[in-house]
Each structure stands twice: as C-alpha cells, then as structure tokens.
Ubiquitin-like domain-containing protein (Bicosoecida sp. CB-2014), 131 residues
Amino acid sequence: VARAEALHAARVKADAEAAAEAERRRKEEEEKLGLLRVFVKGVVGEDGQPRMVGPIQLTKYDTLEQVEAKIKEFLAKEMGEEYTPPDDGFMRIGVDGKALAKGQALMSTSLPDNGALELLPKEAEAAAEDE
C-alpha cells in the first residue's frame, strides 16, 4: 500500500511538473508571436452597468483599428443581441485612462498580458488626436 501511494504521489508530481512546463512553453511561444490576452472595461451590459469582458486575443503589433475590429467581433459573438455598437461606429479605446491614437500599436503602450483596455468617453478621443 505504501509503495502504491508513493507511486501515485510521484505520478501526480510528474503530471504537475509537465503541466507547468507546458504552460511555460505556451507563454514563451505567445511572447514570440506577440500575443496578448486582454480584457475590456466599460462595456455596458443589459442592466446599464459597465462591466469587464474578455479575454480577447490580440497581438502587441495590432493597431487601434485592428484592436477595435477584434473587440467588436468578440462583443457581437459573446453578447449577441445585447451588444449595440457605438452610434458613430467607432470605439474610443484607452490604456490607463489615456486614449490610443489612430494607427498606434499596442506595443507602444504599457499593456501587459491579461491587462485591461478601457472604453472611454468621446472627449478622450479628441484629447488623443490633439497630442
């Protein structure tokens, strides 16, 4: 019985080590490809309250326009009829309260993997264009 328990414990430990190694390799590969998983703050739900959604798969090379398209696609898929695109068709997306400028790539921000993008009010877009 003791030998069986020792074998089981060794198997569990080996499985845990293999899983940790697989996760390390996955993260390493994502880093090479520039992949990021991000969440989006400020999406208004059916109850009228802002919430965070995600994760959404992006790359650090994505521009604001590509990020916006991927967010809209994710929201349409995940929220269905509950999702209503902005009236003017454009989202104002920011990091740490600062709006991203048109053409700006995520790599130029401090956004980490599993970080959060924000949907900002319209005034934030004008401020980003003035910079």
